[in-house]
Amino acid sequence: MTDTTIRRHTSEREEARERDEEESEDLVCPECGGNLASDAEHGETVCEDCGLVVEEDEIDPGPEWRAFDANEKDEKSRVGAPTTNMMHDKGLSTNIGWQDKDAYGNSLSSRQREKMQRLRTWNERFRTRDSKERNLKQALGEIDRMASALGLPENVRETASVIYRRALDEDLLPGRSIEGVATSALYAAARQAGTPRSLDEIAAVSRVDKDEIARTYRYVVRELSLEIQPADPESYVPRFVSDLDLPDEVERRARQLLDTAKEQGVHSGKSPVGLAAAAVYAASLLANEKVTQSEVSEVANISEVTIRNRYHELLEAEEEFTAP
CA 236, CA 272: separation in Å to the nearest integer? Predict the structure, then answer.
């Protein structure tokens, strides 16, 4: 054995001994040599004998939740991103990013780019193992695209994904297009969440026509026994007011007009979108806000004739309600 090897082994032993000494010092009190205890409640390490606080404001590496049995602990424990119904595999598979860069942000060579492209191709093939998963992937992609175009929140997309999965599991798709059922699921989910969109708005971003959407929607709701209440005109008011950049006073007056119309029974058999648009127009006039029927018509996607007819009906109902 050479002198260099001997010196290296000696140095390694000395370093190991120093580490052991440091660890042993960490376990005893620096003042009295007593045992140290960790106080998780206060985030401190204290001496059991003299009470010296050796360390404070410690980081708690444990979970932020509590579990009272083994099953609850297994359910709450997690790693990675949460699962979601908005992806056909619920987000459990691996995704390969589209950027051709390494971990340091440097661009890949041409050979590496070709390799990554092949990996992406095979990864996509492995993620969809059968026709059912390919169907689900296409439909959920359509739901996400339409929801983004309509400005619908994430909870609506999640609900629409669940509705489509139920339709697929109960074999409701034969004879119907994937886009039609996906659009119907999104239309139903928006109404369930209280953020409805009119059939014309849904049809404008869908790949199928309005009649097919309505027909498929009725079929899906009936077969899945979905509990969907008739659309409330008031649920359209905040969006119309926001799109027209009108003050809160207009929204409040529009809600009052619609409440009066309901009490007078004027809303029965009328389109909720038309009533909401007319209420916003009438409320803007009452609040001395300058807005034209053409502007409201464009935002609500209905005709000016409808707004005029409903506008007069709302004002007449208001006059009858306030008359002595």
Answer: 8
The residues pairing with 107 across neighbouring beta strands, listed in sequence order, are: 101
Task: Return d(Cα 163, Cα 19) in angstroms, integer.
Answer: 60
> H-helix or E-strand containing 276?
helix 272-286
Residues in the chain: 324
Query: Do residues 258 and 318 lie in contact, with contact meaning Cβ atoms separated by under 8 Å?
Result: no
Half-sphere exposure of 313 (CA within 13 A, CB side): 21
Closest to 233 in 3D by CA, of 289, 300, 146: 300
- Which whole number is the average pLDDT over 245-255? 90
Per the model's pLDDT, the better-predicted residue between 95 and 226 turns out to be 226
Contact 63, 72 (CB under 8 A): no
Q: How confident is the model at residue 11 (pLDDT cuts 50, 70, 90)?
A: low
The DSSP secondary structure of 129-166, one letter per residue, reads -SHHHHHHHHHHHHHHHHHHHHT--HHHHHHHHHHHHH
pLDDT at 24: 46
H/E stretch holding 211: helix 210-224
- Tell me the C-alpha distance between 313 and 57, whole Å: 67
Give 248: exposed, middle or buried? Use CB within 10 Å, 0-12, 13-18, 19+: exposed
